[in-house]
Design a protein that fits this description.
Elements (H helix, E strand, L loop, with lengths): L5 E5 L2 H13 L4 E5 L12 E5 L7 H17 L4 E5 L12 H12 L4 E4 L7 E4 L2 E4 L2 E2 L18 H6 L6 E4 L1 H4 L3 H13 L4 E4 L4 H10 L5 E4 L1 H4 L2 H7 L18 E6 L4 H13 L2 E3 L2 H5 L4 H10 L7 E4 L4 H11 L1 H21 L2 E7 L1 H10 L4 E9 L2 E6 L5 E6 L8 H7 L3
Parallel strand pairs: 1-3, 1-4, 2-3, 4-11, 5-10, 5-11, 9-10, 12-14, 12-15, 13-14, 15-18
Antiparallel strand pairs: 2-16, 6-7, 7-8, 16-17, 17-18
Helix pairs in contact: 2-3, 6-7, 12-14, 13-14, 14-15
The protein binds adenosine-5'-diphosphate (ADP).
Keywords: ATP-binding, Carbohydrate metabolism, Kinase, Nucleotide-binding, Transferase
Organism: Pseudomonas chlororaphis
EC number: 2.7.1.217
C-alpha cells in the first residue's frame, strides 16, 4: 500500500462523512472506513477517515477504540493524524474529547496539541476561547439541552481543562488574524510554557486556512472538519499531493437506480411527495409488517418489473400522525427496528436485482442498509447537496450510495442525486 498523507479518527459517522467530504473538496482522495479497518485498502488513496461511534460511550472504551484506530493508521504510515469531533465540542465533563486526545498524543509521543472545532461557514465561531453557534453562545444554544452531551459552558478552555490533566491555553483572535506565522509563534510559546493544549480562535474561513498552514508539522491535530480545510494545501506545497479535480471522481457504474427511504423528517417527507408525483413508488407500512405481511417480497416483485424503465422509490416515510399510530401499536423501538430490517432487506434485494446507484434517506436507515450490504468502506465522491456526497461502497461488485440523514437536501434531492450518480 502506498503511503497515506492523513489518517483521521472521527467520533461519529456523520462527522466522518463531513470531514471526508472536506478533504475531497481540498483534492485528497479519501476513503471512509466504518470501524477499525480490516484487510488491505485500495492504493489510490491520500486520506483515510475511520468512523467510530465513540462520542458518548464510556471514555475507557472510546480511548481503547481510538488507540486501535491509531495503531492501524500508523501501520499505514500516515504522515499526520487528525482526531475529529463535533463543531459544537459535544462532550460530557468526563470526555470523551480530552481522554481520547490525551491518549492519542501519548501514543504518538506528542506533548502539545491544538483543539479547534470552529467552522465559521456553518455558524460555529470561536472568539476569545468562547464558542458561538450563530449569534448566541454555545451555552445558550439548543446544545444546552442536548440529551447526551448538554453543553452548558461556552468557554472551551475551561471545558477542555475539565477533561484533561494537561494545561489548556488559548491562541486568541488577536494573534490568529495576523496569520500563520504569528499563530506558529504563539503555539511554540505556549508549548515552551508547558501547556499541553491550545484552543485556537477562528471567526472567518481564512482563519482556518491560516491555522491549517501553521499546523503543517504538527503530528496530531484535533478539531472539527473546518480546520482540516487548510491541510490539503500543506501537502500540496510539500509536493505530496496532485491537483484538486480528480479527487472526487468515482468510477462509472453500470446498473439500475433506486431510492430507499426510512426517514420521517419534514425534508424527507417533502422529497418523497415530490418523487411520487411523477415516478413509481411503493409504500411500506409498519403495521402490515407487524401483521406478518411479506412486504419485502412484494416490494421487490414490484420493483423487478420497473427498474429497467427507470429508478423506483420504496419508502416507509410517513407523516407524524401515522408514525405515532405505528409507534403506539408496536412501541417506538420495535416499530423502528421492524422498518429498518425490512428496508435493509429490500436494499439487499435491489442490489441483487442489479441496482448499483442507491439513495438512502435516514441516518439510522443508512446505517442498517450499509451493514446489511456488508459495506465497511466508502470512497467519497462529489457533493450532491451540502453534507451529502455520492460514495462508492466497496465490495467485490461495488455500488454507489448516497446516504442522506433526516433534514438534508432540497425537495428534488432524490431526482437530483440519481441524475448525477457515478
Ligand atoms: P432521520 O435521519 O430522519 O432521523 P432515521 O432513519 O435515522 O431518519 O430514523 C427514522 C426511524 O424511523 C427509523 O428507525 C425508521 O425505521 C423509523 N420509521 C420509518 N418509517 C416509520 C413509520 N412509518 N412508522 C414508524 N417508524 C418509522
Amino acid at each position: 500500500m502506498s503511503q497515506l498523507l492523513l489518517g483521521c479518527i472521527a467520533d461519529d459517522f456523520t462527522g466522518a462523512t463531513d470531514l471526508a467530504s472536506t478533504l475531497v473538496s481540498g483534492g485528497m482522495r479519501t476513503l471512509l472506513v466504518i470501524g477499525i479497518p480490516q484487510g488491505p485498502l485500495p492504493a489510490d488513496i491520500d486520506a483515510v477517515v475511520i468512523a467510530l461511534k465513540s462520542r458518548t460511550i464510556a471514555s475507557e472504551a472510546a480511548v481503547s477504540q481510538s488507540l486501535q484506530a491509531l495503531q492501524w493508521l500508523r501501520g499505514a504510515q500516515c504522515r499526520q493524524f487528525f482526531f475529529k469531533y463535533c463543531s459544537t465540542f459535544d462532550s460530557t465533563p468526563q470526555g470523551n474529547i480530552g481522554p481520547v486526545a490525551d491518549a492519542l498524543a501519548q501514543a504518538l509521543g506528542v506533548s502539545f496539541v491544538v483543539a479547534c472545532p470552529a467552522f465559521p461557514e456553518n455558524q460555529r465561531t470561536l472568539f476569545q476561547g468562547h464558542l458561538f453557534v450563530g449569534d448566541v453562545l454555545l451555552s445558550e444554544s439548543g446544545m444546552r439541552n442536548h440529551p447526551l452531551t448538554p453543553m452548558t459552558d461556552a468557554n472551551l478552555v475551561r471545558v477542555l481543562q475539565q477533561q484533561t490533566g494537561r494545561a489548556v491555553g488559548l491562541v486568541a483572535h488577536g494573534v490568529v488574524r495576523q496569520g500563520a506565522d504569528a499563530i506558529s509563534a504563539r503555539l511554540q510559546s505556549l508549548q515552551a510554557q508547558g501547556f499541553g493544549y491550545a484552543i485556537v480562535d477562528a471567526i472567518e474561513d481564512e482563519h482556518l486556512h491560516a491555522i491549517g498552514t501553521a499546523l503543517a508539522h504538527h503530528p496530531l491535530i484535533t478539531g472539527g472538519s473546518g480546520v482540516a480545510r487548510g491541510l490539503p494545501g500543506n501537502f500540496r506545497r510539500a509536493g505530496l499531493l496532485g491537483e484538486a479535480q480528480a479527487a472526487s471522481v468515482l468510477p462509472v457504474l453500470e446498473g439500475f437506480g433506486a431510492v430507499v427511504s426510512g426517514s420521517c423528517s419534514l425534508a424527507t417527507n417533502g422529497q418523497v411527495e415530490h418523487w411520487r408525483k411523477e415516478r413509481p413508488s411503493f409504500a411500506i407500512d409498519p403495521l402490515q409488517l407487524a401483521n406478518g405481511q411479506d412486504l419485502v417480497r412484494a416490494a421487490l416483485e414490484w420493483a423487478q418489473g420497473l427498474l429497467a424503465a427507470g429508478p423506483v422509490l420504496i419508502y416507509a416515510s410517513a407523516a407524524a400522525d401515522s408514525v405515532n399510530r405505528a409507534q403506539q401499536a408496536l412501541g417506538v423501538e420495535a416499530a423502528g427496528q421492524l422498518v429498518e430490517e425490512a428496508l435493509s432487506a429490500i436494499a439487499v434485494g435491489l442490489y441483487n436485482l442489479g441496482v448499483r446507484k442507491l439513495v438512502v434517506a435516514g441516518g439510522e436507515t443508512s446505517g442498517a442498509v450499509v451493514k446489511a450490504l456488508g459495506i465497511k468502506a466508502l470512497r467519497i465522491g462529489t457533493t450532491i447537496d451540502p453534507g451529502v456526497p455520492w460514495t462508492l461502497g466497496l465490495r467485490d461488485d461495488p455500488l454507489a450510495l448516497a446516504l442522506k440523514s433526516g433534514n438534508f437536501g432540497s425537495v428534488d434531492f432524490f431526482e437530483k442525486a440519481l441524475a448525477c450518480a457515478p
